[in-house]
Structures are given as C-alpha cells and as structure tokens.
Amino acid sequence: MTFWILAPIMVVAALGILFVRKAVHAALLLAVVMISLAFLYAVLDAPFLFAVQIIVYTGAILMLFLFVMMLIGVDATDSVVETIRGQRAMAVVLGLLFGTTLVLGVSQVTLGTVVGLDEANAGGNVPAIANILFSRYVFAFEATSALLITAALGAMVLAHRERLTPKATQADLAAQRIRDFAEHGKHPGPLPSPGVYARHNAVDTPALLPDGTAAESSVSRVLAARGTVRSAPAMADDIDDVRRQIAGFEAQDPTTDPAAMPETSGKAGAPAHTTEDVRKDVDQ
Amino acid sequence: MNLLSHSVLLPLAEGGASHAPVVAPDTAAGGVFDLLWLVIGLPLLGAFLLLGVAPFLRGSLKASVDKHGHLLGTATAVLSFVLSLVLFLSLLGRDAEERQVGQHLWTWFETGSLRVGMDLLYDPLAALFLLLITGVGSLIHVYAIGYMEHDPRRRRFFGYLNLFVAAMLTLILSANFVGLFLGWEGVGLASYLLIGFWQHKPSAAAAAKKAFVINRVGDIGLSLAIALMFATFGTTDFGGVSELAGEADQATLNALGLLLLLGACGKSAQVPLQAWLLDAMEGPTPVSALIHAATMVTAGVYLVVRSNFIYELTPVAQTAVVVVATVTLLWGAVLGCAKDDIKKALAGSTMSQIGYMMLAAGLGPVGYPFAIFHLLTHGFFKANMFLGAGSVMHGMNDDVDMRHYGALNKAMPVTFITFAMGYLAIIGFPGFSGFWSKDKIIESALADNLLVGLLALLGAGITAFYMTRLMLMTFFTSKRWEADVHPHESPKVMTVPLIVLAALSVLGGVLLLGDWIVTWLEPVTGHAEHHEPPLPAIVITLIITAVVALGVAAAWFLVGKREVPREAPQDVSFATRAARADLYGDAINDAVVVRPGVGLVGGLTAFDRGGVDGTVMGGAAALGGISTLLRRVQNGFVRSYALSLLGGALLVVLALLAVNLG
Amino acid sequence: MTQYVVLSAILFTIGCVGVLTRRNAIVVFMCVELMLNACNLAFVAFARQHGNLDGQITAFFVMVVAAAEVVIGLAIIMTIFRTRRSASVDDASLLKY
Predict the structure, then answer these.
(1) Which residue among A34, A59, A75 closes a domain?
(2) pTM recorded for the entire structure
(3) A102 contacts on B by Cβ (under 8 Å)
(4) Looking at the keywords, is tRNA processing present (chain C) (predicted)?
(5) CATH hierarchy code of domain C2-84
(6) Cα(B170)–Cα(B119) distance, rounded to whole angstroms?
(7) Which range in B178-187, B405-414, B444-453 is most confidently predicted, on average pLDDT?
C-alpha cells in the first residue's frame, strides 16, 4: 500500500526534476524522491538504510547541493533553448526506448516467491548488517574509508585557492586608506552610522549632516538600490510632523488626530521617495 | 717482414681434366723471389709518399717535395723495373716446369668458406707483363719529367702515375681473381684521376667520368664472374679454379666466359664498351701512352689469357671473344681513318690493335702467345708513337689537330725518326716488331676461320692507310702551322725514352725467334696444336704485306698527293661523317642505354609519384577526409557523449533481451 | 516485488534523460544521484527477494561512494564556476575537434 502511494509521488517528483527551471526546485523535488525512497527501504525491511538514506542523502548530500547552489547563485535558471542540435529529441527517444525496454524486460521476469528478510534480520537489522560488513565486506569497507579520505583531500585541494599576493597588514591597509583619500577624496574614517529616528527602523534612515541634509553614505548601498531609503524631504515632513505633535502636546490641541498623520513610505510599502526623487525635488 | 717471406716453390702440378695447364701458385720460391712483393711495394710507397704524406707537409719541406717529388716517383718505377728484370732473369734460369712462383703475403679476408689471401703469382705471363709495365712505365715516367715540367701539380701527377703502376702490378701479380679485381679497380681509379688530371677543363672532367662509368659496366661483369666462381668452385684462386673448371657444367662456364669478356670489354675498350677510350685522350699524353695504349687497356687481353682455363672449356664465350675482337679491330681502324686529332687517331688505332690481341686470345692456345706478343710489341710502338705525338704537341703549343701540322720532319728530327720506327712497326713493315706479331695473328685467324682472317687482313690494310695518313699529315706535306708556332725538338729527357722505345719497336720481333715466346708461355697457356693455314705461311705473309702496301699507297694518293685543307672539309661522304662521329658510338650508347635509362627513371619517378605516392598519399588523404568527417562527432559536449553512452547501454540491454528471450 | 524493480527502472530512465537534457551541472549531478538511488532501490528490493543482506550492504556502499563522489564533483563544479562564471556543462566544451 505504501508503495502504491509513494511510487506515483516519486515518479512525478523525478519528472519534475526534468522540467523545473530552477536548480533549487530540482533539489527540493530530489529530496521528495529520496525521502520517499527512505520509506520504501523501511517497507523493504531495511531500517538501517532507511536511517542512512535520510541522514546521509537527504541530510548531508542534498544539503551539500543546496550549499553549492547558494555559493554559485541561487537564481541562476537554465535557459529552455537546447543548444546541441537533436540532443533533446534523441535523448527523449533513446530514453523512452531504454525505459520501455527495461520495464518490459523486467516485467517479463518471474522472480519466484519472496524469501523475505525475517530470518536474516532475526537479531535485528543493524547487527546483521554489521556482522556482514565487518566480516565478508571488511576489505571493501576499509577501501571505502580510504576513498572517503581521498575524497576529502581532493575536495580540499580543489577548493583551495593559492594566495597570489602577500596578505595586507594593518599598516598596508591604513596606508591604502590615506592614499585613497589623497587621490580620490574617499573618506578615510569609518562611514557615518545611519541616523536614528524613533519612528523607523534606523538602518534605512540616513544620518543627518549638521546642515540638516542627509548623509547618503551612511545607508547600505543595497538598501539604496532597493529604493527603501528615506529621503530628506520625507524626513523634513516627519520633523515637521513631530514638531506639530510636540506643539500639540504643549498646546493640548485635541484637533490633532494622530491617525491623520501622513503615512510616510515604509520599508514594506512601495518607495514613495527615492534618491532620484530627492534630486527631482532639488531641481524643482 | 718475415710474414712476407713465406714463399714456396713446388713443381708444376700436372694438368687436370682441361687442356689448359693448372695454375699452381703454391710453389716454392726463395732467393730473389722473396722480393716479389717489392715490385708492387715500391711504386705503392711512392704513391703513398707523394699523395698521402706530401699534402700534410708544410713550409720549405713541402716546396721541396713539390719540386723534386717527380724524381721519387720515377725512382720507384725504375727500381721496380730493375727488380722485375732481376726476377725475370732468375725465372729464365729455371726449368720450364718450375717457372711458377707463389708468394703468400697475408690472408686478406676470411669469411665463411670464402678465404681470400693476398697471394702473388709470378709466372712467365706475369714476368712479361712486369717487364712491359715497369719498363715502359719507367720510360714514360722519365718522359713525363720533361712533358710535365711546367705543370704546377707535377708531384701529384707522379703520385697518380705511381699509384697506377702499383695497381697495374697488383692486377698482374695477383694469384686470385679477387686480388686481380683489386688491381683492376685500382687502375680504373688511377685512369679516372689521370684522364681528369686537368680537371679545370670541363671536357677532361667529363671524359674522366665517362671512362669511369663505362668501366663500371665492365666491372660489374667481372665482379659477377668472381661471385659466380666462388659460388661454383668455392675459391677464386687461379690454381683452384683451373683445377675445378673441368667439373663445372657448361652453362656456368659459358656465363663465366661471357661475364669475364664483359669485364675485358670495359677495360680494353672493346665494342660495345669502346666509347670512352677516344675521350680519354683528354688526359696528359704520358697518361695516354702508359694507360690508354701500353698497359691498362691491355688488361682485358691479360684477363682472357689468364682465364684460358675457362675459355678452353667454353667455345661459346670464345666465339664471342672473336666476334667482339673482329668488330672492334675494324671499328677502331675506321675511327683512326677519320680523326684529325692526332691522339684520337692513335686511340682509334689502339682500339683496333687491342682488337687484334683479343682476336688472338679468342683463338685459344694457338693465339694466346701471339696475343701477348702483339700486346708487348704494341706496348712498345704505341707508347713510342704516343710519346712522339706528345713531343709533337709539345713543339706545336699543345695543338692536337693534324691539319695544323705538316712538314715537321725537319723541325723535329729525333721525334720524326722514332715516330717513323713506330709507324713502320704498326703497319707491319717487314722486319719490324709489328710485322711479326700481326702476321702471326692474321695467320692464326685465317687458319681458324676464313672470314675472321680476311677481316683481320682488311684491318691490316686500313691500319696501313690511317697510319700513313697520320704520318703524312704530321711530318710531310706542306706546312700548315698556326702563326705563332715555332716547332722545336723536345729536350733530351723526352727524346731518350723515344729512342729506347723506337729501338724496342724495331727489335721487338726478336721475342719470336725460334718461337721463344710460345715456348715461354706454354706453362701458362698450354700447348697448342697448330691448324694448318689454308695457304703456306710465306704466301700469307706476302699477301699481308701486299695489303699493307695497298693501304699505304691509298693513303699516299689520297693524302700525300693532295693539298691538306686546314679546316676539315664538311662535304664528305656518309662513311667519313660516321667515322668522325666515332661511328655513332656515343649516339648508340645514348639511344640504347642512356635515353631508355633516363626514360625508365622518368617512368619510375612518375610511377613513384603517381602510383606509389598516389596510393600512399591518396590513402592518407582519404583517411584524413574520413577523419575530418568523423571528428565532428567529437564536439566537446559531455551530453553528446552521454547520449552515445545511453545508446550503447540500450544496445546492451537489447542484446541481453535478445539472448534471454531468443 | 516486480513493481519495485519497475519503479527503479523508471527512475533510472528519468535520471538518464535528465543527464542528457539538463545543462546546469548541479542539476545534471542531481540526476546522476537519482540514477544511483534508483539502483539502490533495486538492490534493496532484491535483498528482500533473496533473503540476504548483501543487497543492502551494496546499497550502503553505493551511498558512501556517492557521498565521496558528490564531494569531489561539487568541488570541481565550484572550481569551474570560479574560473568560467558558469555552471553549464555545455560551456566546458573546449576538448573537441
């Protein structure tokens, strides 16, 4: 019963791998297949492999896949256009032929009665596997360990990047900073921290210079690119608003309705004022 | 040196199955015969010093060697002659049965069953040759002192001459065919070097090359003969081969005889390998006298006579020798009639006279002694005449055109008298050496075959004609000298050899006294049963003399009585034109050998380019083309390769299914 | 029992086609993993069929080897990405005619 539930899921997920355009989606679909496989292992009296499948495959290998994917760019999508002429058609034709032949061939075979693993798993599946692994397959086991060590070393060698230039010392960095200031006028000290304004999360709010203008460099460039940085006029409004409130409090003016306060563009909403807007305002 | 003194003399072995006597070199020597090797050694030493050591000298020593080197060269030749004379007299003192002396110097090489020793054989035949080579050679050395006086490379010239003498003596004295071949190649080399001595002249360089190449053709024959000998008899010693010759089958013997004849043809300028001799006259005149008249060109005759134990058994080869000889003697004579170059006319004559010798050698034991006899007398009178011609050229500013001579008898009396002696000898004037030798050959030829005899007789008439023509154009008729020429007699150093050779030309006939030479050579050539000539000997002699007189008279009327034009007339008969063109010998060579050779090479080249290269390169190109197409499969896309993998896996699965279900 | 093997074959084929059609190296790699898992399913199923644990042991080894393979493979992908700024298997196609 489990099989008949899981098998269609697995096939659909596997087919999905062929068609989804994002690698992350493919990884997730693969995870579906693998976890389903783990259940099938359990059904097939292989509890040890059930665990290993989940831990090693789904837990380690797939995570490794995702990790690498993150490293090289998550949003990279495959283009749909096939560049090798005839490759896709031939692949499909050959694959269908191959699969059909295989399925037909396998289904032709009569396998006889199932012996079942009750006897072999009599003392528990894990001890039974351990018995065989450390007796009959001990040499293969040791060879596998060597393989794993080699793989680890190989990964290190491959991922290692040789340092081409000597590491910059603190003195070098300081000298560079001053040189940048001399040549490009780049500010040698730390960038100004974002301004603090009680009504907003301060990160997207530029600090104010003594003359009341915003210090652009105090806000992360990413936020600036997204256009969620609050502009100086907006802040001026805010200031006015606050002043009014203060005045209101002082005057105890009940007409002032906090709800009618102009809603400034929040970071969740669409940006009302971008740096471009700021410039536009200045031009006007 | 005790290595060299191992000489033995054994009684002459009894003849084997053949009629020819067995050559037995392993005969005890002792006494003066221990010095046999020195006959070769002396000129070889001279050549080594003059050619091998002198170039490495420096300073005044070199200048002195360059100045006096010729004396060393001459001295070695003269010493060698003295030694030869002593040896000859010692041999003369022995019984006829013991006149074969062998000397084993060292084992040259030994490989498998082939063992070739550096063995010398001194027998009556070699003795005569030794005297001729060293004697005439010495005289020509002396003559060359004068002739080459102003040549800056005289030291080298004498080195070459010594080298030639040493090689020629090796050829004659060797007791086996391999040693003979060594000498044979040595004289070929010396001949090449000396013909091209004036290498700055392109004609001389070309002539040297031509002589060398044509000689190689003959040498192939000789080397094949030697190989065949070794294959058949397992030895190349004269003794061994002569002993075993009777046991070989006829085809082998025929092949041997014909191959040896080919070798002889190359060296002795016999038709069809005659073309080089006339060009060889590009060399200095002493060279022409020594190598291309007296000695080297007669090596072919020596080879045939020396191989008598083979020719005795192969009538086919003997007939071939006779045919070649007859054709050559007429060929050379005809050439001699048409040439205006005095040396070329003499060269044609040489060719013709060697034809006589070969003819005699082809007649078998009857002819061998006469071949050698004529060889000796020819060596005397032809060397004499060549040196005389050299003397004339010396006086005429090295002009060789007889049409520029005339009436030199007064200007060069000694040269004239000595040349006249040679002239009388060659035409066979009664009493002179040539009379005796040629008479004997024609007589033997008539006895053997009437046609050959008559042709030889005709040759004698032509000889008389062209020699008289030469004589008249050079020494008589009107003066046709170039303006700046002042003929003068040559210095003593040149005339003395002329006088000696003239005397020999006159007196050479004494060798025939009491058939001495026939008896002398009998241990080598075997005893001959004389055929009766068709006519009494005295009648034949008279006929020959009459024919000679006819030739002289014809020359007198055609040349002597007329004005000789300074330029050769062009409106002449076809025969004259043909003779001037060496009877188209070069044209024939060109047509028969050179052009087909060039064509063959061209064809082979074309086949190589088109056929072989075409197949190979075409195959490679086809493979390359297919590869260019196939490499498209290697498109670098991993997924394409994976597709192929899947295709393969599919095939495997299908195969499994087929096996399981089938 | 046959249904497990058939499922295994289907998953394997899907993995194959995925390897052949997807260009993102990581997805291709995932498809390879899918094929390996399909094989593992067959192994475990046959272990039950035959009543011994050898199939399970083999599946275990396959997992270990797959882990090693993923480590190295992803490291290679990282390295390639670092130099080419791309994770497409088609970009690394210089080894050709």
Answers:
(1) A75
(2) 0.62
(3) 653
(4) no
(5) 1.10.287.3510
(6) 10
(7) B178-187
